[in-house]
């Protein structure tokens, strides 16, 4: 009987792994698919690099003409040295961020990963997981699945990066993209939108890195992809 052939199967943690972990008796088990596919890891690290370069150089550009006179970023934590240098960094990283972001979004949607990884998502689930996290009772046992707070945070930062790019485009090519400029409420408001979107991203990065520090195994999976052992 075929069923007898499968007498010694490895423990199956998720439905996704079924195809790769069911092995006939006596045969070496096939490796499970990585928690994060290689394209996701590569695009994540390129995105992190480009986004941080843009943020630090953007702060130097902002200081040359602050949108909010009371808010000035200490030059020591900015990148570029002076306005011209910061603009060079900002524009160089911009191309990387945009093209890498397009690759991330297209591969995520086409592979179906985007919908399976981030949905379903409900306000109730976010509140439940947030409450559990605040009580220190949120499980990190299965790194294959994001909790509802993570899902929301990642979706927000992806949307935020899109707003950052579009508002940046409205500032940079304000004459060439009049519709975009007007959608932002004009040139000056586009600068405010750009600054606020940067603030959202900066807040995300601080919380994101703190969360990764609390669950260091998640960093390893974002580096080497992860294996069955990382889920437990
Ligand atoms: C430089 C420091 C960073 C570190 C150490 C880091 C680390 C990580 C890790 C470990 C994960 C996987 C979390 C898990 O599996 O539980 C992750 C996911 C993610 N990170 Fe970061 N990250 C960094 C910067 C950034 C930045 C700057 C952004 C965006 C502005 C970002 C956006 C994301 C997003 C959107 C995901 C989810 C990706 C997906 O599954 O599609 N990260 N990060």
UniProtKB/TrEMBL annotation:
Major subcellular site: membrane
Family to which the UniProt record says this protein belongs: Belongs to the HupC/HyaC/HydC family.
Subcellular location, record wording: Cell membrane
Organism listed in the record: Caballeronia grimmiae
Keywords: Cell membrane, Electron transport, Heme, Iron, Membrane, Metal-binding, Transmembrane, Transmembrane helix, Transport
Residues annotated as transmembrane: 45-62, 82-107, 152-172, 192-215
Designated name of the protein: Cytochrome b561 bacterial/Ni-hydrogenase domain-containing protein
One Pfam family here: Ni_hydr_CYTB
